[in-house]
Amino acid sequence: MVPTRTVELEGHIIDSGTMGRCFGLVMDMGGEFEVEAFDIGRHKDEESYCRMAVRADDPSLLQSILHELHQNGANLSDPVDATLDPAPADQVVPTDFYSTTNHPTEVRYEGEWLPVEHIEMDCAIVVDPDGPRAYTAVLNAIREGDLVVTGEAGIRVDPPDRPRGSGGPFGFMQGGVSSERPSESLIEQVAAALVETKEAGGRVLVVPGPAVIHSGAGDALARLVREGYVDAISAGNGFAVHDLERALYGTSLGMDIETLEHPRKGHKHHIYTISEVIRAGGIEDAVAEGLVEEGVMYECVANDVPYVLAGSIRDDGPLPETITDAIEAQNAIREQAHEADMVVMLATLLHSVAVGNCLPSTTKVVCVDINPATVTQLLDRGSSQAVGMVTDIGTFVPMLAEKVLD
Amino acid sequence: MVPTRTVELEGHIIDSGTMGRCFGLVMDMGGEFEVEAFDIGRHKDEESYCRMAVRADDPSLLQSILHELHQNGANLSDPVDATLDPAPADQVVPTDFYSTTNHPTEVRYEGEWLPVEHIEMDCAIVVDPDGPRAYTAVLNAIREGDLVVTGEAGIRVDPPDRPRGSGGPFGFMQGGVSSERPSESLIEQVAAALVETKEAGGRVLVVPGPAVIHSGAGDALARLVREGYVDAISAGNGFAVHDLERALYGTSLGMDIETLEHPRKGHKHHIYTISEVIRAGGIEDAVAEGLVEEGVMYECVANDVPYVLAGSIRDDGPLPETITDAIEAQNAIREQAHEADMVVMLATLLHSVAVGNCLPSTTKVVCVDINPATVTQLLDRGSSQAVGMVTDIGTFVPMLAEKVLD
Amino acid sequence: MVPTRTVELEGHIIDSGTMGRCFGLVMDMGGEFEVEAFDIGRHKDEESYCRMAVRADDPSLLQSILHELHQNGANLSDPVDATLDPAPADQVVPTDFYSTTNHPTEVRYEGEWLPVEHIEMDCAIVVDPDGPRAYTAVLNAIREGDLVVTGEAGIRVDPPDRPRGSGGPFGFMQGGVSSERPSESLIEQVAAALVETKEAGGRVLVVPGPAVIHSGAGDALARLVREGYVDAISAGNGFAVHDLERALYGTSLGMDIETLEHPRKGHKHHIYTISEVIRAGGIEDAVAEGLVEEGVMYECVANDVPYVLAGSIRDDGPLPETITDAIEAQNAIREQAHEADMVVMLATLLHSVAVGNCLPSTTKVVCVDINPATVTQLLDRGSSQAVGMVTDIGTFVPMLAEKVLD
Amino acid sequence: MVPTRTVELEGHIIDSGTMGRCFGLVMDMGGEFEVEAFDIGRHKDEESYCRMAVRADDPSLLQSILHELHQNGANLSDPVDATLDPAPADQVVPTDFYSTTNHPTEVRYEGEWLPVEHIEMDCAIVVDPDGPRAYTAVLNAIREGDLVVTGEAGIRVDPPDRPRGSGGPFGFMQGGVSSERPSESLIEQVAAALVETKEAGGRVLVVPGPAVIHSGAGDALARLVREGYVDAISAGNGFAVHDLERALYGTSLGMDIETLEHPRKGHKHHIYTISEVIRAGGIEDAVAEGLVEEGVMYECVANDVPYVLAGSIRDDGPLPETITDAIEAQNAIREQAHEADMVVMLATLLHSVAVGNCLPSTTKVVCVDINPATVTQLLDRGSSQAVGMVTDIGTFVPMLAEKVLD
């Protein structure tokens, strides 16, 4: 017989998302469920009720599912007393101790539900049979012999409801994109998605800012273009100028990318670069006449990768290829966006927003910037296939290229 | 007869939260609904189906509700053709034009569903009877006479499903706390919550960092203490030292808060301050002997507002009241946290985390910092009654005091 | 007789800036100096030597000047022993104790220079006659009776030389713009500069980003325009659209600025706004026909304040007045920049850089943003009359308006 | 005969640092100088004057030196007319065109000094013989045949003086630490400094925050410890707990560092970790009994690398080795700081400030954080041998380890 348990949900379980989350959890974890009773609270103040039977192939999987349901407010409908185990030593918890959430919690002791006093996160629950009462204890407050709650049975958690309507600024707040995620592992997964997109015949659009060049990541991006992992570039005049300056003089805005030195007269390089490319007739001609022999723009020309250079009011020059009219540029960007299956945004807010505005919610998006506010703003547009990274573009692109190509 | 329409939901509407969101919407907006059919997809790949009748007291409210349901993927079960109105002029949309989402969308034209080509956000939809076909148009692409979709009828939106399981880093991403919110209005609402908490007999715990003093907001906080809006302070040695330095010398870390000048020998003030308070026997004695005559610590002593000063490894001194043992300090903070009904965290990550760790999810929390990453980290702890603000503490506290007190 | 003392400087005092700093200090503080000997080290490894007589009108001023010179490495040429005073109690320093820098330091004891052991910042120096030796002590390590160095006499500080040439990444690093400054006092000084510029008949150019409107600061800016404190506006299409949306619907990007709510259909407001202004024929016509009755753009039209709206690739619309060609827009901005005597940059990187590129180094610049990286980047352009503030635009503009107008 | 030219400096050249900078420049670039006249402005309003002869071994070096002097306001005392070359084509500058600063500038034409109109940065100067007048031209305003100034001769630049005294908030502002620097090259130079320090027998102190573990950089740091590049660790309880959790369960705060998944019950791992280490008797015992077999703490124990774990009010546990008293911990940190020759601060403000407070200004410091405000604050302490990097710790440490070890 398939292991089965019945759980109950009560409260504003629908609009708080609790019910949906619980249904999803069971399915995600490989279990099954059957709704036995479902009573919808139709009015603002009415609570809803749902009872469901949960099944899984083996008891330990069922236990895991019940654990997660429990954390989300689904409680067993046939409760037993909580299991209590004595702490083996001062500041040591028994195996499988129950670790608290910060939500109101009750434990069942001798058939009675005791509210847990002073609830806070990541504590153990100790039951004092005198009273009886239950309270949280941080690790260093645990004393040998304390009766500590273990397992999941006999515990009820009551996550607070989301306030109805827009009741002012207070509400469930959610943090945003953090830099504290395992960078290398995340880059590996982005690399895998890039490879997968190309293998499936998809088109990759890269949206790089000038910081890609300043931060020394130009070579790595050029390599990705050369090796066929980039199908189009959407950038500004500044990106192209710095990339070309790098090709002509080894500097970006006058600084040598390898030695970090500022060669004398380096501050003139970017103007010289534009002047020289204008003299040659444009980027393609500059490549043809051997003026430009490396870099991202070079690889684009050499490998027939199309690019759009959109002008802006902070441009020097601009280069002959730069589209100075904003509407015309927007139309060119729109076309690039519509054709892309995956978009990689690299350290540019302006161009990323311009591209992002034109994307359907089904396009894969990777958005990388060192400023969390930029990543936050870009992801607010609501893509369903997005990943944001707060990291250094100067290390991200080289690592990505290495993981894609090696 | 009550205006009623029937809508349908299809897809992974449960674990994507769509169904819950739609139920909640109807209730939030003052309508009612009855579930007429509900078919749960029990397996990972099965879709669910829900049909419900939606009612509202008047047709225009029903229209608003249907609009919102529509944006969330609930489509009318008895569809009619989309309404088309000619654009009155180049670059001008007809009244009540339909503004697109970035999700896959169809419009009904002569009984047939046309997919909308090149879907992107905030566009109009134009139907070209030749073909027939439907496509998005940005405002500047609209030409006089274009047949533009208006109203909500005859349009189907299909928001993408959340991927099941943890399918790698790609997924629905959500932005975090932004600084681009109306600061004054938000401060007004925080002020209202503070006043309300006090009027209800609640306790307010303020957790200020040294930046409160450096940024010149000490006077405003002192005023809030004096006027009875602060029931406890949880801070560090540094906050108290700078506040006392301010009281003794008019400087904070040696800079004059009003003139922004660094008086000669100012760099010694904070050490002198600690030395003098130690000589006096402690903060209370320093107030008693008239050494300290203003500031936050002064008002705490004068108004019997209890404070905890927790020590840290970057402290100078410390002051005699500072609890240098981390566990002892944590216990004192824990007690403050448990007693609080509202907590206001002002520009300190360390102390805010320490307090936040001890809070149940039901306590009201206001968290203010100029660094979005700090606000993000603090709100990730999952309070259900939290508001985060990315703003300047040096303008926030004075504005808050003004709005609370005036 | 005028109080006079002779000090000496030794080392790489020229290219480290030490000598210049010392000369400047004496003059800034109201003293006088005469260079008695000046020996320039002509080669990379040669040290320089300078002896100068310093005078001041009264002994206490001279003492202050010598103190500052001392902190910068200028030592008395006729040294006496350091003054030693016993600590009056545990953890209490004697009056006028010497507070250490983190540079190598020596104290003179019985005619001999003792190196101070374990030098670190903000400590007292204790001399142990046994040995004899001198060492730093933090406040809580001071014991009653310890012989603590007081005053400035008999102490030599040796600030490290700046490494010659560009010796790799290590070097004197300097922090940048911090948010930990007294916000209100700083805003007061900006207000004073603004008033002074206008009183002197100067022109004020304001460069606002859309965040000015989102953050609820539009009213305050409109007021400054109306009252004649703004002579020109340099902005983008987005700023004008949100300001006009605010005037037409009370919302900015769909959110009500006062209630923080998102009215139904609010997301269409910005497109409607552009469409309506296009229909009217432009902003001026929209004001003339009574469509727009308040806001920044309204005040510009009503008070004949010229504005430039530069287009960009992320624009919706754009409005008819928006200059969509980047070069044409740049030329318009250039003219604005050349005419300005004071420029106030408010929360926009793109437009601030565009304006900043065209400014001579003599124009007064105020640059305000909540992101320190933006302020850093803008100030790197090297204005000699600049002030940067890391603060919340939503509180800055209202406070500025209040201080200017009230 | 050695190539020689005479230059003059005028104005507030001393306290503005101009003179010192010019002297330093000549020496840095390998030239020599002799001061021929030196007239010090003794009062606030008096200007100074300095005339010096500059020599270099070859004419092109002399030219370079004169170029740099010129940019800093030192002008040739025997001026000639500026060189003029016609622009070869529209939007193309002649070779060696003079690129403007944003300071007031004059060019000499037929013996007369013409002020350059509309000065702005990075422009060419065009001389119109009719008038005659000189004005700046951006690249796209250059027309074929325009007479463009080339070389350095016949040009005078007048950088504005630094305002004397503390004349309010306006002043020379300087940007701070930027993330837009070539990351890989910078990491290479840090690696070289680390290797050099070890080869010279120096001691390296690493100050890591918990983000090192969260961001997946723990393995790389462990490797550096194992290979002998780390002589001491100064961290907090949190760092050690996450590192040990990683060793015991493969997770950090419950997230798997490789797969980015959150295993069921993962949220209990950090409490379990502390509990298990307490049971074992401490970290060393946990290593001895085989409980901990990898990670930073493991390598410290296995390789006799001493560590200090300082407690804080946000700690869970803490681990038995954690020093919970702030003063005791500070003393332990002080000792580590005094012994270090190079300190590497990794993503922790609290511990970095604590260590930084105890450092003499002569110790080499590397300070890495993704938040520019943290790097700014740490570098404000005035080390003379510091390098700050705004980058992602999760990519920095692995790249550093690779460059040091491979």
UniProtKB/TrEMBL annotation, chains A, B, C, D:
Arginine dihydrolase ArgZ/ArgE-like C-terminal second subdomain domain mapped to chain residues: 189-400
Reported EC number(s) for this entry are 4.3.1.12
Q: Does the keyword NAD apply?
A: yes
Class of the enzyme per the UniProt entry, highest EC level: lyase
Q: Which residues form the LOR/SDH bifunctional enzyme conserved domain?
A: 5-103
- Domain Arginine dihydrolase ArgZ/ArgE-like C-terminal first subdomain, residue spans: 104-187
Supply the name of the protein.
Answer: Ornithine cyclodeaminase
Q: Which Gene3D superfamilies match?
A: conserved putative lor/sdh protein from methanococcus maripaludis s2 domain (2.40.420.10), putative lor/sdh protein like domains (3.40.50.10690)
Role played? Catalyzes the conversion of ornithine to proline, with the release of ammonia.
The organism of origin for this protein: Haloplanus aerogenes
